[in-house]
Amino acid sequence: MREKVIRAILDSGENFISGEQLSKELGISRTAIWKHINALREEGYNIESVNKKGYRLAEKPDDILSSENISYNLPTEFIGKKIVHFDTIGSTNDYAKEIGNKVRGGTLIISEQQTKGKGRLGRSWKSKSGDGIWMSLIIKPKIDPYKAPFLTLVAGASIVEALSNLGVDVLIKWPNDIILNNKKICGILTELSAEMERVNYIVIGIGINIKTLDFPNEIKEKATSLYKEGYKISRADIVRQFCIEFEKLYKGYILDDDKENTLDICRKHSAVIGKQVYIVKNNKKELVKCIDINENGNLIIKENNGDIKEIMSGEVSIRGIKGY
Ligand code: BTX
Prior knowledge:
- This protein has 9 helices and 14 strands.
- By secondary structure, it is an alpha+beta fold.
- It has 3 domains: 2-57, Orthogonal Bundle (Arc Repressor Mutant, subunit A); 67-268, BirA Bifunctional Protein, domain 2, CATH 3.30.930.10; 276-320, SH3 type barrels, CATH 2.30.30.
- Helix 2 crosses helix 3 (30-43), helix 6 packs across helix 8 and helix 6 crosses helix 9.
- The protein is elongated and about 80 Å long.
- The protein binds ligand BTX.
């Protein structure tokens, strides 16, 4: 019901909508309307109320990651149409896996804070309250499991496009980091639930640092946020743009086996192609040159002895020579 109340207020734009009209349209008492309005104010909506006129939004609810704010008028078919929003949670990926079998594809789990945010290979992801976008997208493509890792690139390319639409140019450090000014602004963690030949669901976890100004010592040198780099962009706008861009690339890949659009973005915005990097595997690191990303989304590297090799995501970490 709260969602219906805020939708009615959003729909009336700059005009006031009276308590009486809301109560008639929604079939609940004026006291109930008043209670919902108070709860919405607590969530952060700046709702003005004027005697004899009613309610209206005093300002655009830019930064609220609630379902009603993000899904409202979102021009997608299914990505982001259902949003589950938490104030705090262990990990949005873990929660997504709990409900993965039960919900429809496109469902997005978002939390203001994570107490056990996860990175790859058992690493942790700092997710302070209100500082970023900590979200997990559940998708249910009818594909063979081996095709799932490419979706990390689809997600990375979608973030590049989403941020570019909002005026921020970022690079992708293959396969799952997004880099701004040589520092990590976003990480992607893709998890799969599958049988031998069938995907049950895939969870794409995305953490984007938005407002953090002070990072803990252990990541100070390699992490950054949009605010820290001088970009004050609303979190809701980023999530909405991400949903739009992801749906385009995702449909292309799943329905038409189109990888080119994603690969194009990943290559053009690569932080590693043409560069020397350390490939880290089982605590050993080797200096190699990155040549390309091939049609399967794997990284092509040249070793010191001249050998060319193909590297699959998931098996290695990559470190730059200087900086991150
Ligand atoms: P990753 O393993 O590539 O990166 C994790 C590493 O990044 C950490 O070991 C640490 O050095 C560094 N790090 C930790 N927190 C941050 C941060 N906030 N900003 C920059 N660097 C950091 C990348 O894994 C995948 C991260 C996915 C996070 C999302 S958030 C929503 C979803 N839920 C969940 O539990 N994980 C995903």
